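hey can u check if this looks right to u? its 206 residues, i copy pasted from the old doc so theres a chance i mangled smth
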Amino acid sequence: MSHHLLRRSITSIVVVATALVPITSHSVASPPASTTATVEYRDVPADIEAMAEWAIGLFAEAEMTLPPLEINHHGDDTAHCDGHDGLHRPRDGFSIVELCTDDVGFPTQAMVLHELAHAWVDHNVDAETRRSFQELRGNEHWHDYAAATWHDNGIEQAAEIVAWGLFDRPMSMSRINQNGCDELESGYRTLTGVAPLHGFRDLCGA
């Protein structure tokens, strides 16, 4: 074998061998930022943490960037959630989600997705998009519970509509008005610029 052929053979062996070397954890490429959520869980039971991971996965599937998250569980003490089962607290550059229920059923799944939708809206919807959404929905108030009922606040309608668009099964939209399928999809597209990830139409208006 000539030196030229020997060098080519060795090169081929090295290339093949390199391809077979297991990639260590340090070498694995990180997912795109849009599919990655940094989450700190505090006192969250495993079954409720699984719900949060499911909800976060829906945002990742839709390529919607969530801010860094701190998720706290307070059992069934609703004092930490202003009397509700869940509460979102926006902060500069991250979001805090308070969970005040031990229930692990469908209502808690919907609530967790709703609170994470608040996190997405607060960190991704700019003033112009907000105005367009309010004009579309006819909301005078974006975030003022003293001036408008819960379902008439634009921020609550936005969170509900984002949750509807992402939910991987049908969900009732009775908590907000203008809840026909086309109205919900128009709201989702206005907020996100894209079609709903799922947006099941089985329970629109229900």
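The CA atoms of residues 125 and 191 lie 7 Å apart.
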